[in-house]
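Exercise 7 asks you to align residues with tokens for two separate proteins.
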Amino acid sequence: MNTSTSLSPPIWIPVNAYLVTLRVAGRDVAPQWSKATVDATFREAQQLWQQANINLRLCTREVIREELPPRFVEPIDHRGIDLLQSRICQWKREAFNVAFLASTASANRLGGHVPNTRFVVMPYGTGWPTAIFGRTLAHEFGHILLGPEHFVPSEPAAALADNLMMQGFRGTRLTSDQITR
């Protein structure tokens, strides 16, 4: 861990969380997320970013209902996510916005960041341990903070395999270079 971060003031980032019930093809698709699971997910993501002196502040946690046009079906694909992002982010552009959904077309995906936005989608992955959701949310916030690239170690080392920004693996650590960015 980089101790120089303790000398600089913390960075505070507002986060808005939305439990989204989608109305798709005439029926409601409610998220399987509970408020308690959202809060636990957020707390774990917050804890992981504290190593970089970044504090995530949950400003809003609300249940919303969004109706998608008839051309969309459930589970929604990237077009539906883009539409949802444009609707949610029109209200709260200054914050990170997270939509907790029932599912997406990429059933094996735990989370996703919409490029060039501050918008993250967290589908509820059945069969995944709930402990991994916080790491996933922290990883997706990493794309907003550090860029779209995944971490690729320059040399194989066990310590680097635990990097938060590794593709496909939900590590917990950041390099000193990632912390100072």
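Second protein for Exercise 7:
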Amino acid sequence: MKGALAALGAAVALAAPAVAGAQDLGLETLIEARDQYFAGNCAAAQPTFRAFIARLDVNNPREAALVTTARKYHAACLYAQRSEAEAREVLAQMLRDDPDARVDQPFDPGFVLFFAQILHDLQGELEKVRTDRVLSRRDAEARRAAREQLLRAMATTESRVDEVPRSLMWVPFGVGQFAN
């Protein structure tokens, strides 16, 4: 139980300062649903977790930890209700979004083994996700460095622009053509 509180507290600590406030994320709702899970009332907690997950953006680094935490509890509720196929889908999506996510202390040992099996089944796909993310970061860094180099070159290069008066173009006998 203390591990669950620490994990949820860490997720809140990571996400809460970056947003306008804890009220915006509905953290009280997440905590209440988690408490319902621990009380054994998974039927009531499951829709709350689903709604909480749908409200947040997993691509936002400030909300990703909360989404991962909510998905763990949502999958645990589904597993406790014997909806293993749905729990597998939720955990698989959680791992695709956060390949380094783990399930441990506060959960049922059977659920932890269930997660370990899913983790084992998806290992190849998760390695590909990790590799793609590393390559994406490298590409983004290379683009940023190239742009910075271009801006530096543009800032240090001097060019001279001569403005030719348009009135010279009206000089007769084609003399104006030499003004360009």
